[in-house]
Amino acid sequence: MHKVKYIGGSLIILLAFWQIVTWLGGWNEALFPSPLGTVRGLGELLASGVLAADIRASLSRFALGYISAVVLAMALGLVLGWYKKIWNYLNPVAQVLRPVSPVAWLPFIVLFFGIGEMPALVIIFIAAFFPVLLATVAAVQGMEPVYLKVAKNFGIGQPQILGKIVFPAVFPRIATGLHLALGTAWVFLVAGEMAGAQSGLGFLIIDARNNLRADWLMAAILTIGVLGLVLDGIVSYLEGQIYRRWGLTRRT
Amino acid sequence: MSYIKVEDVSRQFTKADGSVFQALDHVDLEIKQGEFICLLGPSGCGKSTLLNILAGFEGASAGTVTIDGQTVSKPSPKYVTIFQNYGLLPWRTVLKNVELGLEEQQLSADEREKIARHYLEIVGLQNFADSHPAELSGGMQQRVAIARALAVDPEIIFMDEPFAALDALTRMKLQDEVSAICREQKKTIIFVTHDIDEAVVLADRIVVMTPNPGQIKTILPVDLHGQRDRTSPDFWDIRERVFECFALKPEDKTEYYI
Ligand SMILES: Nc1ncnc2c1ncn2[C@@H]1O[C@H](COP(=O)(O)OP(=O)(O)O)[C@@H](O)[C@H]1O
Ligand SMILES: [Mg+2]
Description:
The structure holds 2 protein chains of 2 kinds.
Chain A: H1 2-25, H2 35-48, H3 50-82, H4 84-97, H5 106-113, H6 117-141, H7 145-153, H8 158-193, H9 201-210, H10 214-245
Helix pairs in contact in A: 2-10, 3-6, 3-8, 3-9, 4-6, 5-6, 6-8, 8-9, 8-10, 9-10
Chain B: E1 4-14, E2 20-31, E3 36-40, H1 47-54, E4 62-67, E5 70-71, E6 79-82, H2 94-99, H3 109-122, H4 138-151, E7 156-160, H5 168-184, E8 188-193, H6 196-202, E9 205-210, E10 215-221, H7 233-247, H8 250-257
Helix pairs in contact in B: 3-4, 6-7
Bound molecules: adenosine-5'-diphosphate and magnesium ion (MG).
The site of adenosine-5'-diphosphate has 12 residues of chain B, from strand 2 and helix 1.
């Protein structure tokens, strides 16, 4: 019940602030839209089906980039965390690459993959890959040693131990990395889609700007925010389920 | 012939500052099949180190351990260890935890489940098969660990302070249960504890250890004629002798060993 109150209150604050800025600024509607103008623009985008198509395009691109990054980073992280010696050599490389914004790679990405569909995918991939890789390696290395002792005691051998013991044992800790990566990757979705994609919310933003439709631009921005929130909510929920199943209390 | 033979085992650790720490110093011990042995001593006297070497988790710096004539070099399902923090897999149900060791054997899923349920019944947890460990109390979790160990029908069960995290009443209840179950199943038990009463209740022989360096000071046979009543005069008598053991002055110790 309180939650509804807070969300409602925060919405009212946002709208009031926005409306005041619009009045004080006195800009042309084509440069900065009022709340009402944005709602009208959102209605147009919904009615024409443009927004739905762009959301679908962005979400499927995001799913592909994010999921492939997560699967690869977890598998690699599991192996690299396990074989400490290899990781000691790769860790400095990962530490150097990690702080680089995925967007910085864009010219090279375009060179390698061309413009269009691939840059967005690759940027989402890079954005999600490093947090998950590092979280997985850290989780494997910091794993409760008693699980390994139990596995050894019962004669569970080298290949099975990763899937049967190590992965489930460290999964709650990886889940935190997955959550983090989801947020980061979503932020970079728009940047990725600005590099020549012909659909998606990033494309919608470019398109709205080129057509001087500030109301569409603002509608797209709000959509990105709300979808990001929904994705985050879904992952939080799943994380909560995992934590419960593993008998852990969520760190806050 | 003795079943477990510890011959002149030493174990050093290099500490962070580079100095060498003698966790075990020339330890000799022989254990017969079916014996219930308690390793008793204060924290830091090398009980866990000795147990880990016996179970094959760690190597000795010097000396050898043989079980049934074979030198111990790595862990084996024939000798199962039960840990203080239970070592249950939290993502598995109680039943699946008990099945863990059985999965490495050539058994059908049905047979596995049947065996696991049998041992859950022995520890009185048949109604919790589908629970997850986190839903159980500490005492119940340790029962699951005991069922999981028994399920692979090991010859030896090693226990490292398995009841240290439990409240006193639960601990006593589990002591009685473990004592009964393990004797009935004819297992050899090596049980680490720093609790004198626990050792007296459980052990056929108490191996008293002292720290710095970790040594076996003496071995006390406990002859309670199968009667483990914590209030009986015999119990207090043996308890008294263990106390005397720990009260020995340091200079006596060297004499004792030479
Ligand atoms: N891996 C290790 N590295 C360094 N010192 C250790 C290690 N394991 C144990 N020790 C030291 O050896 C001594 C005996 O440890 P342990 O066998 O765990 O004692 P206990 O189980 O009797 O309390 C302790 O002083 C401990 O600090
Ligand atoms: Mg110990």
